[in-house]
Specification:
The protein is an all-alpha fold and 146 residues long. It has one domain. The chain has five helices and no strands. Helix 1 crosses helix 3, helix 1 crosses helix 5 and helix 2 packs across helix 5. It is elongated.
Length: 146
């Protein structure tokens, strides 16, 4: 497989997980925010916190985790936006095929595409997919990545 194709296929295969991260990270940020309120309150009630650890250290760790997650959320958002803009440049059928084959990885999708496209050989399906991937590469990177 050419490097440009590997590069784009890797992006497509990660797209589902990046989309999931966009949903999961805000939940963890919310949990950490609630935890930070609990940590701040633990110094006021005079009760030792089970598990030890200095309150300031726990608060600092909480802040560091939230900052890292906020960066990850921003990067995941840019990742998804970048790939989805590339997909938007394709024809609707092409984008759906790419989603089926590379993003969702549907079982037996190549055989089903061969039947849908009324092609005699799987090799013909792969050739058509290569053309679609090349167009996607150009839409995403402006040219085929070496």
């Amino acid at each position: 497989m050419q490097k440009w194709k590997d590069h784009v296929v890797d992006r497509l295969r990660d797209l589902g997980m990046q989309r999931a991260a966009l949903e999961a990270i805000p939940l963890e940020l919310e949990r950490l925010q609630i935890e930070s309120v609990s940590i701040r309150g633990s110094g006021v009630d005079g009760v030792a916190v089970k598990g030890g650890g200095d309150r300031e250290e726990r608060m600092l760790w909480n802040i560091m985790q939230r900052e890292a997650l906020e960066r990850n959320l921003e990067m995941a958002g840019k990742y998804v936006e970048f790939v989805e803009r590339g997909l938007a440049a394709l024809e609707e059928e092409e984008a759906l095929v790419v989603e089926r084959v590379y993003v969702r990885g549907e079982p037996d999708v190549i055989e089903r595409l061969r039947e849908e496209w009324e092609m005699a050989e799987k090799r013909s399906v792969y050739k058509r997919l290569d053309k679609i991937l090349y167009r996607l590469t150009v839409a995403m990177f402006g040219m085929a990545v070496s």
